[in-house]
Amino acid sequence: MLSSGLTLIFSMMGVLNFAHASFYMVGAYVAYAIAGVVGFWPALLLAPLAVGALGALFERTALRRVHKFGHVPELLITFGLSYVILELVKLVWGLSPVPFSPPAVLQGPAFTIVQSSVDGFGLVWGAAPAERCAAAAGAVVHCSTFPATRFFMMVVALVMLVSLWLLLTRTRIGLVIQAALTHPEMVEALGHNVPRVFMLVFGSGCALAGLAGVVGGMTFVTEPSMAAIVGSIIFVVVVVGGMGSLAGAFVGSLVIGLLQTLPLTVDESLATLINALGGSVGPQTFGWPLLRITLPQAAPILPYLLLVLILIFRPKGLLGTREG
Questions:
Q1: What pLDDT digit, counting tens, does each position of 43-57 carry?
Q2: How many CA atoms lie within 13 A of 217 on its CB side?
């Protein structure tokens, strides 16, 4: 969800927004404030609109003034904005996490996967009855639940991606937005306000980040450090998938997600593999501190290792196209 908004801004404007994760954080806090007054579902709509308006205001008053000077000033001004937003959030809501809980309908499991040695796999929406998950007649039964908040996040992310793709490729608005980046003089000659188009694009990208913040804030923890947690990884996703490619952002998100989670299921190391193949390594072996590192321990650095490899062997990313 975050990489979609960042990709929209970069592909349409050529601006790599370093404050994108900060708008994600603002979305979570604004939704928390609105939900306390009118409830979660109105906040799900109003918070992204508020964040999008803030993003459009920033583009109109600050970013537009440095756009003509190139990418470095754009990076620096969005980098500074991220720190300003962080300090403002700390001043308003404090340093501690806020109690932003999901609504009642999203609490509990979305569905339960029932695995039986006799009946095989079964899917039960909601929580499976206790007797369904109990061993009966010698059948070994295992039940795994999938949280409703994660299911809701998946649905919103897919709807966002499909809607954004349809908007950019199947509507007149999308054609105007794409043409404004490559042929701004022609777009202006046809009567369109190019600076206004860029302002709306930047605001829309920030609104997508705000929507991700609403869903992420109620699913995880709403705190000032939430922007730093996801800030670096979304740039990895965008680079791995391909700069400016929505399909690349989707594929990159899946690749990085799997790369972060699958290693956690294998608590093994190179030393274990070598010993299993007939070798003999131990604390006295040269390089033992590296050989004994398990996959779960190495999981946090794997996305960044993939980023380095992508930049070396395929700089355009998995689905990106090299420009110029």
A1: 999 999 999 999 999
A2: 33
